[in-house]
Structure of HD-GYP domain-containing protein:
Amino acid sequence: MLTGSIVVLSNRPDRDRALADAVGAVSECRLIGLDERWAEIDDVIGIIANVNLTEPEARRCLTLLLRRLQGRRMPFIHLVRNSTASTVREAQAFGATACLSSLLDSNTVVEALFRQIQPDSTVSELVVQRQIARTGTLINSMFKTAATGQIDMQEVEQGLDPVLNAVKEGGLTGWLEVVRAHDDVTFQHCLLVAGLTAGFARSLGLSSKDSHLMVRAALVHDVGKSRIPPEILNKPGRLDPDEFTVMRTHAPIGHEILLASGNCDPITLAVTRHHHELLDGSGYPDGLSSDAIADPVRLLTICDIYSALIERRPYKKPLPETEALRILHGMAGKLEDGLVAAFAKSISTDCRHPIAT
């Protein structure tokens, strides 16, 4: 993942908020004006300047930047109103490594900058890496606070768009590949389920509101594991019957944590408590069956099971896509057939090669 920040320099920062947001999807970003003193420059890895060099303040600001850099060159895109030879030469004199039209859309400018910074990665790949890091930080924080107290649902909200945007920009395959590079099993599982749920919701054509609702439920569905003893949660092997009994308590514990935390919608509460229920009544913790299991729970249960099948665990190798889907199709009577078929379609549409390695 990228380290360091990008600076967007503008003579009108309010005008360039969209550009800064586009950069922020890929990397840390600072949007600054012409009064910048460049006191913090060590972590800067790239610059986009949307200023008019005929303005004395713009020239003063860039001159100060050159002094602070002390000869260090970095990717620097200068947005220009016209691309005459004299304009380009002047921008290059102030350190620009490329000049682009100020009329270009933000995403094109961002792609041009990051081709200089990290040419071996696409912007979509960088977006996925950044959003996974952001969401992972949120999950780690959530599990730490939930272990002894409540969670902040407003903080959880901050993790929804990163998941949805990353799956939209980089595809489900990109999300799964990056997430599965992480070693922490619980961390990996929560992110896998969130990504699978976002991709499934997108494939089903769910509204933005419903997609956010499902990803919210996916992010917190296993929060009860924060209170499962580490020696059971992280056991490098299969659980014995007594340990499995303890592990099963994570669903009702998670439900209790969310109730105590407040501001939690009924669907997220239901998903957290019932994501291990099965249509034939053989699931847990309440042995629900048939119509007692709501549609959002049925949807996320499929994502949860598939995620467990493709994950790498100390005691098992990840299954390839085709084998994992075969197992889901074999759970007729336990999972809703129509939803399994729709999920398989969403996976095969996005994942054009086996997930397991």
Observations:
- The chain has two domains: 5-117, 123-350.
